């Protein structure tokens, strides 16, 4: 088109606001994060170049290894649980016609609220004189200290995030299920395949790309969990919920050790990058 | 899988053929139970918010009487009101600016040619892989150096560089036929006029969807407002809620605050549920 070739300036002018915002607030901080991790930047804005000292300190920091373990355990509980709940509810929504819109809305409702709200409600639900222990007391059980025991606190937090977030994956999986041609399942039914066989041999293989997408998205969000931890446990008890992001927050905004906090951020970046690259690798293979 | 034509039709397949799916009552009942379980924390929150103050609600028992006292008390506390106003400013300004800048950039990326266009676009996309939390420290230091801590611009401006929005707008505008824009150019319309009278009206459905998401992202946002909004002047509702501690105040007051904070989300949800649901399924926006 001629007019488009004639006028490169308008194109640039239309991009300019976004370009300026990106250069200043996305690209510069991304490069800055790498640069800062090589300095001892502090609250006063003074800094000197310290080379790889922060990374060496990281490797010697037991809190760092604790946070890595906590983050991985949390993801290992959260991701399968979310996928299971999201897939189960998506399958049910796909099968049941009765009041489907209402049920879908109810299941999706927590997704539009905030993690802070989820944390506030569930902190009370888990408390000694909270909802669950109140119900347990009626059955002469408990009380259970959900948020005060190292063994229970991570699964308890994972449940909160699952409750808050599964609606998103449920909708993605439901769209995936809807795209499976009904004739495949009908043919299998005619063939005498049991519901389990139909699920195992037809639905699941065809749903695999969607499941993989959801798996990657939920893994990344597991690594980014912060709000519920801040509200419900503050990283405790005894660092049992001290995740990578909590480490970034604490070093940055409790001890104002910006250089070292940026180093923690680089680890988070590396992990998310690896997960994203694995996703691309698999998706590319799936397309060929 | 092999088809054996001689096998008799099962009852379910027969019913499906007749065009009347069988009502699967056990599955429907299971779905109903799960749905009720999912909303029950909200119901519990509202019940406590409506209970008379003084921690009277034995958990698991319905309160003897309901009252609006907690809600009115929360709404008349100055802190809470200013947090709500701040959240509204944070969300609404972000929606307006992001819709405007992202649709302009999306139009240029989709329909204009200029030097460095593709390199720029892919760089924007690549920044999606950098989690915001990883750049939290340098972004804060930058805003701090520029004097933006505890100001509205410091709160809002860094969140306006949204690659998902630019990407979504570009993909949608790419699908619009070139002829529309060319015809307007032939008629002598200026570039701004083309943008305002053709691009904006044609992208209205995407703009609406994006607007809903940007609103929810900002209304529910926590980590950035937590570190930038350090006093009640700029503190948002999510951050304000975390400063309320149950030790110092009635549980019913806390739950009343929580209930009010969720109202905008519920309004968006009830008005635009179908919209939200479809756009998540189609675009994967999160």
UniProtKB/TrEMBL annotation, chain A:
SUPFAM superfamilies in UniProt: MetI-like
Membrane topology: Multi-pass membrane protein
Location relative to the cell: Cell membrane
Keyword Metal-binding: no
PROSITE patterns reported in the protein's UniProt record: ABC_TM1
Membrane-spanning residues: 12-31, 72-93, 105-125, 152-175, 206-226, 258-278
Keywords carried by this UniProt record: Cell membrane, Membrane, Transmembrane, Transmembrane helix, Transport
Name of the protein in its database record: Carbohydrate ABC transporter permease
Organism: Nonomuraea indica
Lineage, top ranks: Bacteria, Bacillati, Actinomycetota, Actinomycetes, Streptosporangiales
UniProtKB/TrEMBL annotation, chain B:
Keywords attached to this entry: Cell membrane, Membrane, Transmembrane, Transmembrane helix, Transport
Transmembrane segments: 27-50, 88-109, 121-140, 152-173, 194-219, 251-272
The organism's place on the tree of life at top rank: Bacteria
Major location (coarse): membrane
Membrane-related topology note: Multi-pass membrane protein
Domain named ABC transmembrane type-1: residues: 84-272
Subcellular location as annotated: Cell membrane
InterPro entries listed in its UniProt record: MetI-like (IPR000515), MetI-like_sf (IPR035906)
Family recorded in the similarity comment: Belongs to the binding-protein-dependent transport system permease family.
Protein's name in the database: Carbohydrate ABC transporter permease
